[in-house]
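Support case: copper (II) ion complex. Customer-provided input:
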Amino acid sequence: MCVAIFFIVFGAMFWSIFRHRKSVGAKAAQFHENTTIEIIWTLVPFVILIGMAYPATKTVLDMKDASNADMSIKVTAYQWKWEYDYQQDGVKFLSHLSTPRAQIEEYHGPGAAKNQNYLLEVDEPMVVPVGKKVRLLITSNDVIHGWFVPQLGVNQYGIPGFIKDAWITIDEAGVYRGQCSQICGKEHGFMPIVVVAKKPDEYAAWVKDMKARMPAAPAPEAAPPTTAAGGAPGPGATGASQAGATGAAEKVAAAAPGAAKAKAADGKTTYDSICMACHATGAAGAPKYGDKAAWAPRIKQGANALYASALHGKGAMPPKGGNTALADDAVKAAVDYMVTAAK
Ligand code: HEC
Ligand SMILES: [Cu+2]
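Agent response - structure generated as follows:
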């Protein structure tokens, strides 16, 4: 359209200049003010502008309108990872860069070859069904981050204390990659985003699989306790009834702090606030919470060896899970809590 307008306007101008030039005897017409033409050249652009502004405004409003979504996912940014919390399907997990740092940094000289996406790969991608309107509720737990996936047209700040929304509808199954778009700290470059769009039946299968892999959610306290109060029951393999017992144990602990039962509650609190970050999903090779096969060989080492690993770190696990301010007893209680859930 612009090119056509260009040729019409400049064509008329050059043709007039050439045709009516002084050297062929053209004489300028002398007239001032023509009300009719002035009204026309005011009204025509006015109508054109209104005609353009209406659809443009409508499109911008639609682009920002996250209502009437088929599903919602709360996206929380952390230094330096993402958490995806599926509001309807009850799935919640963390997503980390999956390429090992040693391979990225080549600490020990060039190692295994890096593939094209080595900085854009995660252990757990955000999975969505194709053709569905997905509302993203984006926030942050620490500093300002940005959830940015160029192909999906979303670049939204995650701001602590605020929830911003955005939405996506993906038409084609596939993998869509992005990165945090704010300079959010020293590992800003290492918090990629991977969105995988699947057909609805494959998505349903994924939800089922994720639920099986996730630690069971605490059940309502009404459930009757089935375990002896002295243990450290967790919301592990047997689900509801044990979780009920945890609730009961917490109540007892609140009533008699310092007693042996208080330890069970402490373990859960510590686990929930620190250890869960890696142990809930089994990130970075951590033995997963409630995963008997992963824990069995470790439990064989004996409680003291496990305490020592948790206190002083082991492999990819930093001492005390990275929170050195934790009391030794709280760390040990968290170990007991995880061991009980995996027995
Ligand atoms: C940053 C991620 C991360 C956090 C946070 C974390 N762990 Fe771990 N943990 C790991 C990894 C990775 C391993 C596997 C280490 C290995 O075997 O090389 C592990 C292993 C363990 C083991 C088994 C040790 C052994 O000897 O086999 C225990 C026990 C454990 N963690 C306890 C804890 C406790 C308690 C907390 C919370 C205070 C915690 N972890 C927080 C990553 C983490
Ligand atoms: Cu960030």
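The pocket of heme C (ligand 1) is lined by residues 270, 274-275, 277-279, 284-287, 298, 301, 305-306, 309-310, 314-318, 320-322, 331, 334-335 (CB under 6 Å).

Case will auto-close in a few days if no follow-up is received.
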